[in-house]
Amino acid sequence: MLILLADDHELIREGVKLVLNENSSEYKFLEAQDYPQTLNHIKTSEHIDIILLDLSMPGMKRLAGLKQVRKSAPSIPIIVLSVFEGTEDINSALSYGANGYVAKSSAGKALPHAIEQVMQGETCLPDTFVNSSGITTGTQCDYRALPELASAEFLLTARQLDVLQFLVDGYANKEIARKLNIAEPTVKTHLSNIYRVLGISTRTGAVRIALNMGMQ
Predict the structure, then answer these.
(1) Gene3D superfamilies in the record, alphabetically (predicted)?
(2) Sign of CA dihedral 63, 91, 7, 43
(3) Deepest of 9, 95, 127, 147, by most Cβ within 10 A of its Cβ?
């Protein structure tokens, strides 16, 4: 299965690939980091099976960009990946042609099931949206956490969780320091402790586990 993975944050793309490859060896990826590159892949690649699309990429213009992607790829399923989980955001994405909607905070748990459901012709939505809106035409994405990964959240301090969340969002150490109003060496110390607790040694590994933890 060839997936067009369109997101401007490299760490997000790497985390998504790691999560999906852990579930299946059948996935292959095309990557785009902005809106023009996304459209170019659609235009030049004949066998894309599904598109995972961030609406906040450079040049994307959110719903207008989604509308154009749908126009350019009328028969390819599209799952929107977003930091926004509001009912209006999800409704709008569906009305502009999305087949599914997965919050980035839960992507590690939801994506494998969402892809499976969308490829079967279902509309996969966050469970909170389905319940609050009373929609019966969509299928709830499977948000079950992996217990051994979810439990890691309770071993991290509140500040470490803050740092990990910014890591998932694609921020560099200097940017994290500015966001949290702490020194950059302090960020590095937090990262070292996070790596130790999670049993990994790279930023990408931390992102993968954070996605599986379903951090909010």
Answers:
(1) 3.40.50.2300
(2) negative
(3) 9
What would the mean pLDDT of 148-165 be, rounded to a whole number?
Answer: 69
Nearest to 57 by CA among 8, 23, 24, 99: 8
Tokens, residue 100: 């599914």
* CB-based contact 204:11 (threshold 8 Å): yes
What is the C-alpha separation between 171 and 164, in angstroms, rounded? 10
Cβ-based neighbours of 46, under 8 Å, separated by 6 or more: none
DSSP 59: T
Q: Are 52 and 30 in contact (CB under 8 A)?
A: no
Q: Which domains does the chain have, with CATH numbers?
A: 2-140 (3.40.50.2300), 147-213 (1.10.10.10)
Q: Could you read off the pLDDT of 22-62 as tens digits, one per residue?
A: 877 789 999 999 999 999 999 999 899 999 999 989 998 88
As a whole number of angstroms, the distance between CA 20 and CA 80 comes to 16
Joined tokens for residue 56: 């906040």
What is the Cα–Cα distance from 14 to 214, expressed in whole angstroms? 16
Q: How far apart are CA 139 and CA 89, in angstroms?
A: 17
Are 104 and 80 a contacting pair, CB within 8 Å?
no
Q: Position of tokens 């401007």? A: 8
